[in-house]
Amino acid sequence: MEPNFWQNKWQSNKVGFNQSKPNTLLMKHFSALQLPPNSCVFVPLCGKSIDMVWLADQGCDVVGVELVELAVEQFFEEHQIQPTIVEHPNTPNLKYYQGHLDSQTITLWVGDIFELTAQDLGSVDAIYDRAALVALPDDGSEDSLRVRYSQQLIKLAPKAQQLLLSFGLSGVDEAEYAKYSGPPFLIPSQKIYSYYQQAYEISLVEAYETQQVNSEGNPFLNLAWQLVPH
Ligand SMILES: C[S@@+](CC[C@H](N)C(=O)[O-])C[C@H]1O[C@@H](n2cnc3c(N)ncnc32)[C@H](O)[C@@H]1O
C-alpha cells in the first residue's frame, strides 16, 4: 500500500478497521505472555487502537508506530491525554507523541515503521500485532511489503514474543487465498510460518470460524498466534 492510501483513509475517516472496544482475542490470550508489571508492549501500525488503552490498563507501557499523524493526534485527544511531542534528533520524518495513562507511559511514533530502529524503540518485551501484518500485501516476491515488515519486526525487537492476530479461510488450499484482495488480507497458515519460523517458535492458540462465508460457503477464520523467540 502506498502511504497515500492510508493518509486518504484517515483524512476521509474511512477507518472501519478501528474498534470501539478492546479486541476479544487480545483480552483472552494476553495473559499467556506472562509479562511482569511495567513490561513494554510494541504495537506496530497502531492507528488509534483502543487496545493500547487496554494494554496500559493491564500495567504495561506501550510503544506504537503509525504513519498518519492524524491517527496519533486523535488517539491522545479521544483519551484526553496531553502529549509531549518530540522530534527525532536525526531522522526528519520521525517524531513521537508521549503521554501518561495513570502510571503507564504511551509513546506513539509518527512515521514509517521501516525508518525506526531498535534503539528508537528501546527495550520491548512483547509485540501485539492486530490488523498490521494483514494490512500489508505480499505479491510473492522476497521483498514484498509484508515480508519486509515481518523482517523489520524481528530486527526491532528480537527478544520480544508476539501475539499476532490474522485472518484466514476454512477448508481451502493456499492457492485459493490469492483470490481475495485486501486490506485486510487473508494469510494462509503456511505463510505465517514462512515469515516467522526462523525467529520464533510458533503456536496457533485459537482459530474460530466467523459468521461470514465466501461464495462456496467456506467460513472466514479469526486466528491468534503466539510467537516466542528461539
Ligand atoms: C488496518 S490499520 C490497523 C490499525 C490498528 N492496528 C488497529 O488495530 O486499529 C493499519 C494502520 O497501519 C498504518 N500504516 C500503514 N503502513 C505503515 C507504515 N509503513 N508504517 C507505520 N504505519 C503504517 C496505517 O496508517 C493504518 O493506520
UniProtKB/TrEMBL annotation:
Belongs to the class I-like SAM-binding methyltransferase superfamily. TPMT family. One of its GO terms (biological process) is methylation. It catalyses: S-adenosyl-L-methionine + a thiopurine = S-adenosyl-L-homocysteine + a thiopurine S-methylether. Pfam families: TPMT (PF05724). Its EC number is 2.1.1.67. It is found in: Cytoplasm. This is Thiopurine S-methyltransferase. It is an enzyme of class 2 (transferase). S-adenosyl-L-methionine binds at residues 10, 45, 66, 130. Gene3D superfamilies: Vaccinia Virus protein VP39. It comes from the Bacteria. GO terms for molecular function: thiopurine S-methyltransferase activity. InterPro entries: SAM-dependent_MTases_sf, Thiopurine_S-MeTrfase, TPMT. GO terms for cellular component: cytoplasm. Keywords: Cytoplasm, Methyltransferase, S-adenosyl-L-methionine, Transferase. Its main location: cytoplasm. It comes from Psychrobacter piechaudii. The lineage of its organism: Bacteria, Pseudomonadati, Pseudomonadota, Gammaproteobacteria, Moraxellales.
